[in-house]
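no rush on this but wanted to send it before i forget. theres a chain ive been looking at and ive put its sequence and its fold in token form underneath. i want to understand how the tokens follow from the sequence so walk me through it. thanks a lot i owe you, the record is right below:
>
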Amino acid sequence: MRRVSKLSQVAVAVASLALAASACGKTSSEASQDDDGKDRGSAGSSSYKGKGIGLAYDIGGQGDQSFNDAAYAGYSKARKELKIGGVDMEPGDGESSADKVQRLEQLAQQGYDPVVGVGFVYAPAVEAAAKKFPKTTFGIIDDNTVKADNVVDLVFHEEQGSYLAGVAAAKATKAKHVGFVGGVDIPLIHKFEAGFVQGVKSVDPKIEIEKRYLTEKPEEGGFSSPDKGQNAASGQIEAGADVIYHAAGLSGQGVIQEAGSQKKWAIGVDSDQYRQKALAKYKDHILGSAYKDVGGAVYDLTKSVVEGKPMKGEQRYDLKSGRVGFSDSNPKYTAMKDVVAAVEKAKKDIISGKVEVKTVP
């Protein structure tokens, strides 16, 4: 991805955003230019008047190999397939809620539509910016508390994918001992734990489960500290776990690295982490990933705006929609026929309503 290190045909737009970035985070990519360097302007439909999509990253930023990178995938797909421009912006270190508001308002003022906040931490900022720019469509991922005509809440049944991860872990463990590492001790991550534990127990109630949350608050680094994830995984492996599932964003890289180096199974989250280049050294030990298609949701929203029929209200994705699931990229996983069969059965049971997955541990 091209960074703002040189001016392009859209230098004016980028320069304006860069001024705002000095106070509220940095611009991650050039406006109205795709990754091949070709200026695509803001074609879209004939009725679309926006400059493209504005994307504001969550804690950890692009390169987390998980949540933010999933959003970037949808951003990139939208720009390429819909032939529109776009700017994605990184969070600043120790930034305030006011910084987030400023970032979103700057994107809207520049003409980007939709403007998407990646993560529940953007809720107050989206609410404030949406009031100021009622003609701009705002999207927020992982939060459904902001209610406005021009705000779309993009949320997921994370507990369903986590249930499948629990079934896979329970079938793959040889020690009858597995682990869960959550980034931050908050209700959203509790959904991951609840689904995982229920999935494990559905296979064998006697399996022991280690549980660890890295921090109590997001600003303490629970989603952005691989070293914390590595330490947590090390402790769980020492306690006897041989399969560890993480829901910890960038911190999860440390979980996967530790599990891989000790030749234990890791289960990724949000993105298909088996395919992440930064984790290639450890991919043989990534059993699978409980993914939620954040990129697909970002693309869906952008397409609706470009086509002149913006989404509204809450959009919740689940197993049935295909936006939540368990990845099977690792050949070692697909070779475990009994594990795959158990996961597939669990998926069908959830979709049919036979199994209702808990959202609270």
